[in-house]
Amino acid sequence: MTLSRRDFLRVSAAGSGSLVLALSFSGCSGIQTGYREEDDRWVADAWLEITLDNTIYFTLARVEMGQGTYTGLTTLIAEELDVEPSVIRPKFAPVAPEYRNPLYKLQLTGGSTSLATSWEPLRRAGASARLMLVAAAAEVWQIDPASCRTDNGRVLHPDGRELNYGQLAKLAAAGKAPENPELKPREQWKYIGRERGRLDARAKATGTAQYGIDVELPGMVYAVVTRPPRYGASVAGFDDSAVRAMPGVLDVFAIERGIAVVADKYWRARKAQAQLVVEWNTEEALAVSGDAVMEHYHRAADDDPGEEERREGDFGAGVRSADRVIEASYEQPFLAHATLEPMNATAWYRGGRMEIWAPTQAPDLARIAVARVTDLSPDEVAVNTTFLGGGFGRRLTQDYVEEVAAVAARIRKPVKLIWSREEDTRHDVYRPAMLHRMKATLKDGGVTGWQHQVVGPQILDWYVRNAAPAQYPWAPKFLYDTLGKVGLMAEGIATPKDISAIEGAVDYPYRVDNLDIRHTHTDAGVPISWWRSVGYSHNGFAVETFMDELASELGRDPFQFRRELIRHEPRHLAVLERAAAMADWDSPPAPGRARGIALFRSFGTYVAQVVEAGIEGGDIRVYRVSCAVDCGEVVNPDVVRDQIEGGIIFGLTAALYGEITFENGAVVQSNFHDYPLLRITALPEIRVDIMASSDTPTGVGEPGVPPVIPALGNALFALTGIRQRKLPLVARA
């Protein structure tokens, strides 16, 4: 390091220690950052920390649940800061307003929005810091900042001298952040768009990455909870005499969600739970069985045509003038999330505060969950977010945090709560079952009208309970339920419209003269939440299967049929043509195999897929999936492929096996033997082609799911001549 005595005196004149660079960018007005000596951490609105020993920390405002935010968002900062991404140390953000997702006004990770919402803000943050460091170096050297350049964490003097960022940090912090820092032009990018490994790969491969289930604290005890077998039931009474006599058992008591058993070791708590005798009050419990939910949906659809969500032309007139009217109904079951890491959380109540360690997608909602079941206010709750062993929307709901907080408030020791796999399956908040009634008009060999009636619940009805109070954390707890009710009443007026049921249906992309898309809002009482790709997952199946049916009715090739109706949408058309070319669509498949195609845009990302499938030994076998994806500018191609491949596997699992059923209100399935995941021996060959694009990046965590389900169903129709309109799909010779 070429640091002269004069330069050393200048850069060290401000003192020693770590400091935070003051950053300013849109969406976070008036950011003031500073270093807190008393606890050695950032407090408010801080993204970037640089210590005098040249360690660079990046506060990651979106959780890492396998989707690649740890790598992708760090790369954005690294590009503009001009350092190797691997030298930056990401850390998960505390709960703070500056870390809220701007689309949802909540601090949560979901909707494949992490990269899209961070694309410009994080790059501006890195650029601002780099310019401040350059200005500091120029001040030391008494030269024009324009004559300096940066390279991998150093500012370089024209004569070859250099200062690393750590040496300049304190001096830079005293400077003024630029109002609108200029970002690097595309041709100067070193890291964005390059094939690079994941920054969290080594930690995960070596077991050093801390997931929620890994948290260990001094003197920690363990809790399990016995919950009602039917949603809506409550505890009428329980006999814990045998349990309290068992080794290691510390306490047994009722909480809002069931009976908690606390022991000094997890397995002791689990064994003790088996001896607990509970009497349940089922007067208000869910009582559905078999096909009752779908029968309820059909009655609702008959009684209520639904709210009009999109209308173009005159569908009724199109029906009257049509040569033919084609109708079909599609049914989809409830689905569990089946994250490999079951629900868990750790809590410690001490000193009038509670600290939470949790794999949560929504840390600010976790604080509200704690406040609900304790005597604490949200600002008396600290949430430490860990790595997540899968999220898929399940960890947006904070029921497991409520449980551990209720236990910790009584035990006053660090306590870890772990759900068993059976509990995770039977007490999930599910992807809603949905019904779709479709109708199309045909005239002169073409499609003239399209009607889609979506029948089912809205997720916000179930989620607003904690989401509304999280937006107003200063509100007293007695207002929490009122805020939730007001949020529902103002939905679509003062609050965003809940589109969870209709997304992917309302933005039907094909060119048809008469459109009528509506939603019949009905709820069977089964708890629901977001599930990977949300409404796109069920609407994708209905829309793209019905499109295939129309092609068959008209005697058209399914690819060419879609191609003609999507010519006005160049990005749709490009991925459709690319996927067909990848799959050799025009050449016949091997004997015993057939191909199906589907196209869908979700979360701003365009995806087309061709599935090649057959039937072997009475089972459906998927041989190959060819996928073309347009997700705008690509930050890390490896992460894009990983996520699209993962989405395809996730979707195939749902298409082949996914179904949660009920018997007298209780979930029948319990573990992977009766709610299976796609096994590695059944994995198809997956080929992903990423379209070159300079458009703003969009999400990739979820868009791989929606097209693969109808593409597989369409392949089975091509193979067997039998159209399946109900999931999961079954083998039919």
From TrEMBL:
Keyword terms, alphabetized: Signal
InterPro entries, sorted: Ald_Oxase/Xan_DH_a/b, AldOxase/xan_DH_MoCoBD1, AldOxase/xan_DH_MoCoBD2, AldOxase/xan_DH_Mopterin-bd_sf, N-heterocyclic_Hydroxylase, OxRdtase_Mopterin-bd_su_IorB, TAT_signal, TAT_signal_bac_arc
Domain Aldehyde oxidase/xanthine dehydrogenase a/b hammerhead intervals: 206-284
GO MF assignments: oxidoreductase activity
Keyword check for Transcription: no
Origin: domain of life: Bacteria
Short name of any one Pfam family annotated for the protein: MoCoBD_2
PANTHER family, sorted: ALDEHYDE DEHYDROGENASE
NCBIfam families: TAT_signal_seq
Protein name: Isoquinoline 1-oxidoreductase
Organism: Marinobacter profundi
